Amino acid sequence: MKALSIIKRFFEKIQEDELFSKASSLSYMTVFASVPAISLVFFLFARFAVFSDLYDKFKNFLFTYFIPQSGIAFEKKLDELIKNIGSLEIFGVLALIITTILVVDSIEGNINRIWGIKKKRPLLIKIASYWAFISLVPILIGLSLYISTRFASFGFLKVLGESLLFRSVQYIFLPFFITVIAFWIIYFFLPNAEVNPLAALGGAAFGAFLWEITKYAFDAYIIYFSTIPKFYGTLGNILVFIFWIYLSWLFLLLGAEVAVFLEGDPGAKVTPSLLLVVLLITYKKFEKGEPITLKDVTTHLKINLAKSRFAFRTLELCNLIVEIKKGHFVPVKHPEKMLIKDLIKTIGVLNFDSNGLLKTEIKALEFIQQKIESGIENLSIKEVLPLVQEL
């Protein structure tokens, strides 16, 4: 029954996050902006003299292993566009860069929504990180291909290349492995929050598996079954390719949902009592001059990462804590100035629920309850902290 409830909750969250409509909007943006974005990456790739001779190898690698047959028609147009970039004026290049940044920003927004994150990165930091990603991709890919080319020159690898096992690794497992790495990078680095690397890897493997299966299914459909290309001609391949783009985004977002659930159901109930306890231990850590982290809370309270993150984000939205750097939080007010009566109004702690809390946290809540019942209105956080256990 527990498995059924988890599956039910998973599909409920897919509906809450509007995954299908988000995949549609990303597909539209991809069709609109992917040509400039990919052209810009390829152009930057070709600009590095050390990698210029590897440009054709990379392009062939991409279209052979990662794009279905329906997208091959796009290859010739891409060559023309890359040649045209070199003749663009400065405003044209800026337009390409802005378009590319908008695509990455849209991806980040949708990924953040899946992780339940509403706070955005500062604009300058966002642009700097996006540009680093766009400009470093050609270098990293170039290095990878350079190393592969060097290894391929060894005789024993040429012999291996003729074996069925080696060809299976080359055409099936290598693309899958690279896709997993690409998805993992998106899930781990793009959300504006701390993400469990193993959960991100699990989601990446799930999304990459669906993505690879779909790619081969589309190839089989185009080659053996499809009447669309016969009816529409070249346009038919483009229509099928656009549908494949939609499924690609859908699987990327589904992988993100799986990663979130591997961290723990973020929809699990976060009680006002838990919020108060998280705030108390935040102040306790701050007494030592240190910020509190998600890991501190998950370890101390023995709750999952998703619930900890939700508690932090709720307190942040209530303007009770602030994130000084990714995953590190400090209180907004001094403990003497943070009155319990104000917290009650803010987070609604009226009936304290001690279920699942440690004995020290229960004592702190009982102490607060007694003081409230005694009519003491000026009770501050500082008076409660001695009852809270050290982290």
TrEMBL record:
Coiled coil: none annotated. Keywords: Cell membrane, Membrane, Transmembrane, Transmembrane helix. It is a multi-pass membrane protein. One of its GO terms (cellular component) is plasma membrane. It holds the Pfam family Virul_fac_BrkB. The chain crosses the membrane at residues 28-50, 85-107, 128-148, 168-190, 197-218, 238-262. It comes from the Bacteria. PANTHER family: INNER MEMBRANE PROTEIN YHJD, UPF0761 MEMBRANE PROTEIN YIHY. This is YihY family inner membrane protein. It comes from candidate division WOR-3 bacterium.
